[in-house]
Each structure stands twice: as C-alpha cells, then as structure tokens.
Design brief:
The complex is a heterodimer of chains A (550) and B (314). Chain A is α+β, with helices and mostly antiparallel strands and 550 residues long. Chain A contains 18 helices and 21 strands. The chains are: A alpha+beta (550), B mainly alpha (314).
C-alpha cells in the first residue's frame, strides 16, 4: 500500500512538473487582451483581438502612421492609373520568417482565398468597399482567377478596381488584405491548421509568435530579426494576457503584472482617487458608434409599430445622450447626434472630421421631450394605439456598460414617453446575433467598429441590402447615393462624394432608421515606463511596432 | 466476474451513446448559430449551414457524426479557431487541466485525510471541532471565491505566485488553482474519513486488537486506516472527474488554457461552436462513466467482502 502510494505521488509530481522552468517578466511589455484570439487566419478572422495579433506579425502593402495616414509597408511605392481604377504596388525586399521572400503571388493567393472562404468580411473586397474587380462574383463561386489581381513579376502586384476608391491605400493596412505564403499554406497537412501554432504560422512583420495555442490566455511574441524595418522595433520579447474581467486587469496593473489594460467606466472613479494611478490613465477614442436599431419590418413581433417614423423619432428624441455617455458609460465616450462617430474619417483636404458638426441634424436627433411627445402623439393617432410595448435586446456578455446603458434608456424613454414600455431582454451574443438575423426583435442596442477610415464603413450598414440584416429599412434615394458614392458617378469626385454622404445621412436621420447614442472610447491604463504605442480609430486599433519599455 | 464486467462495459457504451445523442440534439435547439452571423445575410447563413451539413435531417447528421467519431475524429470547429481540427487543440487543453487536476487531487486527498484522521483521533476535543469547521467552510466557499482570495493575497499583496497562469512556470503557477480546486475535496474527504475512522475505531475487531495489546500508530495503520480508507475511495472517484475536467470560472480568472475555458469559449463566443461543445461533452461523460466503471470493478477487488457475482445475481 505504502509503495503504491509513493509511486503514485512520484508519478503525479512528474506529470505536473513535466515542463517546468522559470520565466522572467521584469521589464517586459504585458498587454491585456479583452477577449480570446479566435483565429490567426487573416482570411477568416472577424474580431479585433485577432486582427491586432495578426497585424503584430504580418505587414500588408501599407500601414498607418501615428496620425492614421497610410504609409508604405511591404509596398515600397505604388502607382495609380489616371482613372483611379488600377493600382500597381512595387514590393520591397522582405522575408517571411522561414526565410522565403515575400512576393506578389502571396497577395494574389491570399486575396483569392479570402474571396472564396470569408463569411462576415466577404463584403470588404466587393463593390461596397474595396471594389476589387469581380470580387463579388468570386465570393459567390466564380473562378477565383477572374479576381482583378495579378502578379506580373514577383515584385509587382497589380489590383484592378471596378470603381475608384479614395481610401484604397488606407484600406491596404487592414489584415484582410495581408499576404499568405502559398507554398507554406499548402504544405500544412490538415485543413484549418494554418495559424493554430507558431509552427503553422509565418510572419513577415515586426514580431513572430513564440508561444501561441488557439484560445490561449497567454500569447508570447518576440522580435522578428528578418523584419524589413527591424531597426524600428525596440521590443525583444513581450506578451498578451487575455483578461476578461476589468477588475482583475486593474489589480494586475497595480501590481505590475500588466502594463497596458482597459478599464470600465465604473472603475475610473476609483482610479481618479489615486494620484499615482491617474498618471497612467488615457482616454483613447475607439471610433465605434453605439446606436439603437429599430426593426421596421411591418411583420415583426409586436405588430410592426416601429415601421412608423414618428414613433422612432419620438424614442430617439426622448434619450438624454449626454447623461448616457457621461454618467453611465463614463469612460470618455461622447454623446453623438450623427450617424457617423465623432473623431473619425477626416476629410483629406480640410482635415476636418466628417461628423465634426454635431448640430447638423439637430432637427431629428437630440434630447427634446416636448418634440418627442408630439411625435409620439402623432404615432398614436396614425397607429390608433395608446400604448406600445417593445422589447429591447442587447448582448450582455461583453461587460457591464451595455447593461447600464439599456437600463438608462428604458428609464428615460418610459419617463419621457407615457405609454411606451421597453422590456429589457439581455442575452448572450450568439443569441443576440441570431435574433437580429432571424428578425425576431423590436429594438436592439447595436455597435459598429469601423474597418476603414471612411464614412462609408457605416453608411453601407443601412442600404436595403445592409439593413436587411437588422433594421429592415429601404429607401431608393439613400441606396442611389450610396451606389453613386461607391461604384457610381461620384466615386471619382472626392468633394461631390463627401457632400453626397451628408445627403445620405440626412435621409437616414430624418427617418430615424437608427438612434445614434455615443462614440466609444477606451479608458486605458498605460504604464509610465511604456512608450511608442499607436492607437487608430479604424482597422487595427493598437499597434506595438514602435513600443518600448524603459 | 467476467460476465459482470462485460455487461457493465456494454451498459457504459450504451449510456455514452445515449448521452451523445441527447447532446447532439440539445446543442441544435440552443438559440444561436454555430458560427458568427453578424452582418451575414439570410442567404449567406443558409449557405454556410449547408456547408456544415446542418440542412440535412437530424438523424442523418447524427449518423455522419457517429461515423466520424468511430474514425477517431471530433471534426473541425464550426466557429472557433478558423475551423481547425478539434482533437489536437482539445488534447492540449485536457493535458493542462489534467495536470492541475492531478495536483488538486493530491492536495485534496492528503490534506483531507490528515484533517479527517486528526479529527477522528481527537473526537469531541477542540481539534475535532476545528477540523469540522474547516471542512464545513470548504463546502460552503465556492472554489473560485477562494481562488480570488488567494490571488489577491498571495499574488497581489505578497507576490509569492504569478498573478496569471504562466505555462512556462507550470508548478508555481499551478499551486493556487490546485489549492482552490481541492477545497471541496478536502472537505469531502475529511468528513468522510473522520466518520469512517470513528466507526472502525468503535468496531469489535479494533477493540479486540487493543485488548491483545496493540495500540498507537501500529493499531491505526494495521487495522483502522486500512478498513476506514476503502470507502473513502468512493468519495474521491467522482471528484477526480470534476477536478480533471477543469473548472470553468477558475480557468477564466487565472488565464489557464484548459478544457473549462475551452468550453466557455465554445459556448460564449459570437457563435455556439457545436462540434467543440459536443466533443467536450462526450469526453467529460466518457471520463465520468469510465471512472465509475473502473471504480465499481476495483471496489470488488479492493474489498473482498463485496462479491461482484452476488451483485450480479441481485
């Protein structure tokens, strides 16, 4: 008995200590990730955590500088044809982490594969965004070789577009457009194994993965010595730590385990009381817009009352957005009265943000209880009803903020609009998305993070095809403007396109298709010894290429 | 004996098949899609469902799934990790959870026995009361609360252990989660071993041994512990499965890449990954059924008073 016990204990100890060894994290950058990396396959990933880690390791044709302007990355330079529909990128000498050169064929392969396999991001190559020739057809099953991309020689990558796209160079910094080494990809044995371990992933960027597993809470990266711009990279080793609780993250920041963490609005008060900690607090605009989506399908669950524009306008104007942003979100987010978030999409000529004038549509979006009640009375008369009971759905697994926002909206709407009741329906995100796509909701709290630095990243959400997924609204005038601005007559005329987008926004807001709420912000604690971090409102939000820890 | 074992194995396999079928059907009833559907049109969703074979009749889907299982594969993820094969990822996570689980079983059994034996030997005295309070606390305090407590005091206040799990420093990183996980088993083992010890100590054969002049540690080792510890195995066995299959909350809090957090990711992502949930559900069930089967058979071998054939006859 004694021998067996001893043997068992020795075996158990050997088992648990099998891969022991120390690690020294002093002076090392440790960054909080709020959620797991879902995929390191640039063609398939859809979440910001995955995009960020991919961008740490892979360079696309272009990258964004600290001010968000596109600058060359793998492309040393590019030429644009006179009609703006052909881009020729000249690639620099760059290497993959297995020593092979980065070639134009790596882009051709990755782009074709994206069109063939992508789900959520399939649209980004197509005619609402990048307008790559034949992308929509290839997405629907056409021959991938018909995609408008080619590699006349290993150092030249040519893209043909269906229409000029003014923000095309900036779009090239988005991970969906990154290259994948075809030979390496095809050498992997099993379908789907690309990017699941450091061995099944190739870098051509600033860092290589040194430890990663799908779902890993800890991701280790190290400097890529073969990076074409290795002199810019100061970090030798650093890591991500997935922490889903902001309380846990704050404590880890305080004891020095993490150097960069995101905190919630409710934690800011406690941080402000600590003068040392306050020095680390930064409010970083995220470029996201939180808004209310109204389901306008006449056949939806509650009799289609929201097909009535007056009811939608009443609800939109019964919400005190300042109070919502300052008292409930409270992380630096700004009350927003436009369909495009503040601090986003600067005009290339004037430098002014698209939504700089927040009073532009004050007639339709604001906090005015008297006007809201007038609209409500009009809705009651038109619909022949005195009471409206509506279900407000929201995903409650992404933190406490949305829960507080939902409660505040309910309280404000019910207080300001007698007869309107909002029934709160919190649910996990998978169920929430299911409700949206199956058209089984009345009102939803939505949020959209821009993929690229142009208002169109938002406007395409509400075209007839776009809003079929959520708001079920259709307006031919609006659709025409969006078509004109993407592939039509205005695509090549920067100023006319810019002005036309305001016309589209007016149609959107006078119809109260959505009720904008606030432009998001990330309250972030950054160690005082950390410098060189770059933050962007669109695409990849955080860039660590130039980061360093003193 | 052989007939009994064969019958038990057959019953276990049937139970596992039934569980697999129930899980297979249930996961398809749960609201949500098996992949993220944000900004996907109804047409795209249908196309993707067809690609995954979800448009076929459920029995056909089940038959296909069983064929795949019998070929030793759990398939590919439907939403997680770009549809990579599940088996290698799950095995890696199982390995991590197993190693922490083994440590917590060791903690739980050794500390639990020490408390139980101390309490039994000091029955009615202060130490007995103290041990009882400790074991009640162990049952009452959820393991993740204890984990937060340990993390706060022994990582934040006194930095003895890493604040988050560090795979490159496995042993040091495993101590706090293993201790937290073992809290319940410490209590269960302590209470059960105390009661068994007291019962055995009051039995006639122990009194006879005492009358014959045997006392102290020798009496304890030869007569009391041997008889008292056999029933304790029945308490430990089901706990073993719980501990080996990870702890969802603790893994999330401490950043452990184990099966518990894998299950949470599979359920709580933008899509419910059917194949991961099924694979993990089947593995957990198989472990539980397997441990109970082995325990049942071993019980007859450890304790000769139990006759498997008699059981069979009954």
């Amino acid at each position: 008995m004694k021998k067996i016990l001893t043997l068992l204990m020795i075996c158990a100890l050997a088992l648990v200590t099998g891969c022991g060894g120390g690690s020294d994290s002093a002076g090392k950058l440790s960054v909080m990730l709020g959620s797991n990396v879902v995929s390191l396959d640039s063609a398939k990933c859809t979440d910001s955590a995955s995009f960020e880690v991919i961008a740490d390791c892979i360079d696309g044709l272009m990258q964004l500088d600290a001010d968000g302007k596109p600058i060359p990355a793998i492309a040393e330079s590019f030429d644009v044809s006179a009609d703006g529909k052909t881009y020729t990128f000249h690639l620099r000498d760059a290497k993959w982490s297995n020593g092979e050169p980065v070639t134009a064929n790596d882009f051709v392969f990755a782009w074709r594969r994206h069109c063939q396999t992508a789900d959520k991001y399939a649209y980004i190559m197509g005619n609402t965004v990048a307008c790559v020739k034949n992308a929509d057809a290839v997405t629907k099953g056409a021959d991938p070789t018909t995609l408008g991309v080619s590699a006349p020689d290993p150092k030249t990558f040519v893209v043909e577009l269906d229409a000029p796209v003014s923000f095309f160079p900036s779009l090239m910094s988005f991970p969906t457009f990154y290259p994948i080494n075809e030979k390496f990809y095809k050498s992997l044995d099993e379908e789907g194994s690309y990017g699941t371990t450091p061995e099944t992933f190739l870098s051509n960027g600033a860092f290589v993965l040194s430890d990663y597993l799908p779902g890993a809470a800890n991701i280790q990266l190290k400097k890529n010595p073969d990076y074409w711009n290795a002199a810019q990279v100061k970090l030798e080793n650093w890591q991500y730590q997935v922490v889903t609780s902001s309380d846990n993250a704050l404590t880890a920041f305080k004891n020095g385990t993490l150097n960069v963490v995101g905190i919630s609005g409710s934690q800011i008060e406690s941080v402000k009381k600590d003068t040392d900690l306050m020095k680390n607090l930064h409010s970083i605009p995220s470029g996201s817009l939180s808004y209310i989506s109204f389901n306008q399908d006449a056949k939806n669950n509650h009799g289609g009352a929201l097909a009535n524009v007056n009811l939608r306008l009443a609800i939109s104007n019964a919400i005190d957005r300042e109070s919502l942003a300052n008292n409930f979100v409270a992380n630096g987010s700004k009350a927003t009265y436009t369909a495009i978030p503040i601090h986003f999409a600067p005009n290339a000529k004037t430098g002014k943000f698209f939504a700089e004038n927040q009073q532009q549509f004050a007639e339709y979006v604001g906090f005015n209880v008297d006007k809201a009640r007038d609209w409500l009375n009009a809705a009651k008369a038109e619909l022949g009803k005195d009471t409206f009971e509506l279900e407000l759905i929201y995903a409650n697994d992404s933190g406490n903020t949305v829960v507080k926002v939902a409660q505040a909206i309910k309280s404000q709407v019910e207080e300001n609009l007698p007869g309107v009741t909002l029934k709160l329906q919190p649910m996990p995100k998978a169920e929430y998305l299911d409700k949206l796509t199956t058209n089984s909701f009345d009102v939803a709290i939505s949020s959209w993070v821009p993929d690229y630095d142009d208002p169109m990243t938002f406007f395409t959400l509400w075209t007839t095809a776009g809003s079929e997924i959520c708001e079920h609204w259709s307006n031919p005038d609006y659709d025409k403007i969006i078509d004109d601005c993407t592939t039509g007559a205005l695509a090549a005329d920067y100023d006319a396109r810019w002005l036309a987008m305001y016309d589209a926004e007016k149609i959107l807001l006078e119809n109260a298709v959505i009720a904008p709420l606030y432009t998001g912000s990330n309250a972030t604690l950054i160690g005082t010894n950390v410098s060189g971090l770059e933050f962007h409102v669109a695409g990849v939000n955080r860039v660590f290429k130039s980061a360093q820890v003193q | 004996m052989r007939k009994y074992v064969a019958k038990r194995i057959l019953m276990s396999l049937l139970t596992l098949l039934l569980i697999t079928f129930v899980l297979f059907v249930l996961i398809r009833i749960v609201p949500g899609n098996p992949f993220p559907v944000e900004r996907m049109s109804a047409e795209m969703i249908l196309q993707k469902r067809a690609e995954l074979g979800l448009d076929k009749p459920i029995l056909e889907q089940f038959a296909n799934y069983m064929t795949m299982l019998l070929h030793g594969s759990f398939g590919n993820g439907t939403s997680l990790y770009n549809g990579a094969p599940i088996k290698p990822i799950m095995l890696k996570c199982l390995e991590t959870s197993f190693r922490i689980g083994v440590l917590s079983i060791l903690f739980g059994t050794l500390v639990g026995l020490a408390i139980g034996i101390t309490a039994a030997l000091n029955r009615g005295k202060f130490l007995d009361g103290f041990c009882t309070v400790v074991s009640i606390l162990g049952v009452c305090i959820p393991s993740y609360v204890f984990m937060i407590f340990l993390q706060y005091f022994f990582s934040y206040k006194i930095p003895l252990f890493p604040y988050f799990f560090d795979p490159s420093n496995f042993l040091q990183s495993s101590i706090m989660p293993s201790l937290s996980l073992s809290l319940f088993s410490i209590s269960a083992v302590a209470r059960f071993s105390r009661n068994e010890m007291i019962e055995v100590m009051n039995s006639d054969y122990v009194k006879l041994a005492e009358a014959k002049g045997l006392y102290g540690f020798e009496l304890l080792r030869r007569h009391v512990l041997r008889n008292a510890l056999i029933p304790v195995v029945t308490v430990i066995a089901p706990l073993v499965v719980d501990l080996l299959t990870g702890a969802m909350v603790i893994e999330k809090i401490y950043g452990i890449n184990g099966v518990g957090s894998l299950m949470v990711s599979a359920i709580a992502g933008d899509g419910v990954d059917y194949n991961y949930v099924l694979a993990l559900g089947i593995v957990f069930s198989a472990l539980y059924i397997g441990v109970m089967l082995v325990l049942d058979i071993l019980y007859g071998i450890i304790d000769p008073r139990i006759s498997l054939t008699a059981k069979e006859a009954a």
